[in-house]
Amino acid sequence: MTDVQVEATGETVGEAKWAALRELEKRRPGLDKSSVRFQVVSEGERGLLGVGYAPARVIATVSADTLAEREPVDESELAAEARELVERIVDGIGVVGRIEIEEDEETLTLSCAGPDLGMLIGRHGQTIDAIQYLANAVM
C-alpha cells in the first residue's frame, strides 16, 4: 500500500488543513486524524483590497499503515454513544485528536489526545467544562 496524499487550499493555513482533512475523510472514513502529517506549501498572501491575494496551500499525508482497519474496540453501548458525541463536538470545534475511553462499573472517562488541544480546552477551561456538562446531560 502507498501513502495517501491530498493537497488543499484555504484563506489561512488552518482552513487549508481542514479542507485537506475533510478530503482525506471522504476517501478513508474513520481516519485517525492524529496520524495525518501536514506540509505547508504556501502560507498565502492576504493582498491589499483583493489585489495580490494568494490562498494558503498544504499537503496532507497519511501513511498506509495507519489506514489499515482498526480492531473493533470492545466497549459498552453507553461508551460508544459517549465516544460518538464527543467526536462530533471535537470535529465541530476543529481540533485534531483521538478519543480514548476508560470505563469501570461506576464511571466512564473520556480523554482526548492530540497535537494542539488549546481550542478544546478553551479560555480558563470553559470549553472543556461545557463539553463535560453537555456529555453528562446527554448521557
Q: Please report which band the strand proportion falls in: under 5%, 5-15%, 15-25%, 25-35%, 35-45% or over 45%.
A: 15-25%
Tally of DSSP β-strands: 5
- Which shape, going by the Cα principal axes? globular
Distance linking N and C termini: 40 Å
Strand count, sense and barrel status of the largest sheet are: 3 strands, antiparallel
H/E series: EHEEHHEEHH
What does the model show?
By secondary structure, this protein is an alpha+beta fold. The chain folds into 2 domains: 4-67; 77-138. Helix content is 38%, strand content 23%. The chain has helices at residues 13-27, 64-67, 77-93, 118-121, 126-138, and strands spanning 4-10, 37-42, 56-62, 98-103, 108-113. Strands 1-3-2 form a 3-stranded antiparallel β-sheet. The protein has a two-stranded antiparallel ribbon with strand order 4-5. The chain is globular and about 60 Å long. The N and C termini lie far apart (40 Å).
Give the secondary structure arrangement, pairings included.
Blueprint: E1 4-10, H1 13-27, E2 37-42, E3 56-62, H2 64-67, H3 77-93, E4 98-103, E5 108-113, H4 118-121, H5 126-138
Antiparallel strand pairs: 1-3, 2-3, 4-5
Task: List key phrases describing it.
5 strands, 2 domains, single chain, two-stranded antiparallel ribbon, 5 helices, 139 residues, alpha+beta
What is the gist of this entry?
The protein has 139 residues and is of the alpha+beta class.
